[in-house]
Amino acid sequence: MNVYASVALSGDGYMDDRSPRRLILSTPSDWREVMRLRAWADAILVGAETVRRDDPSLTVRDEALRRERLAANRPADPAKVTLSRSLRLAPASNFFTAGSGARIVFTDNAAASPLETAAE
Questions:
Q1: Assigned architecture for domain 28-119
Q2: Is the pTM of this model over 0.85?
Q3: 5-34, pLDDT tens digit by residue?
Q4: Whose CA is closest to 47, among 89, 11, 12, 77?
Q5: Is 103 helix (H, G, I), strand (E, B) or coil?
Q6: Largest CB tally within 10 Å, which of 6, 32, 101, 120?
Q7: Dihedral of the alpha carbons of 95, 83, 42, 119, in degrees to the nearest 10
Q8: Please, is 89 exposed, middle or buried when counting C-beta atoms within 10 Å of its C-beta (0-12, 13-18, 19+)?
Q9: In the chain, where are the structural domains located?
Q10: Taking the CA of residue 97 as centre, how many other CA atoms within 13 Å lie in the half-sphere pointing to its CB?
């Protein structure tokens, strides 16, 4: 299994600030590399705050890369994974609605019982 970390940091070592706007730290060439790595990932992990603030689709947008995934007998999009204590995740967010990859939410919230979820 290969694990890749793709993180953009500010000069003072931060990944984001607390302002309501999205802090852009990556260049267009950074994003091209992120998209290339995403196309070969089995899963993409983002924090719940990223899901809430940035609403990322976490899909493979380049059609040539999607075709390569499919030709390699892989799903068109990687699985999407997030970590959330509060489970405050909008069902209409791109995490749940965009693309074809599996959606996985890890939590330590006792209200998220697998038995209750399966019965819904």
A1: 3-Layer(aba) Sandwich (3.40)
A2: no
A3: 777 777 888 777 777 777 777 788 888 888
A4: 89
A5: strand
A6: 101
A7: -70
A8: middle
A9: 28-119
A10: 8
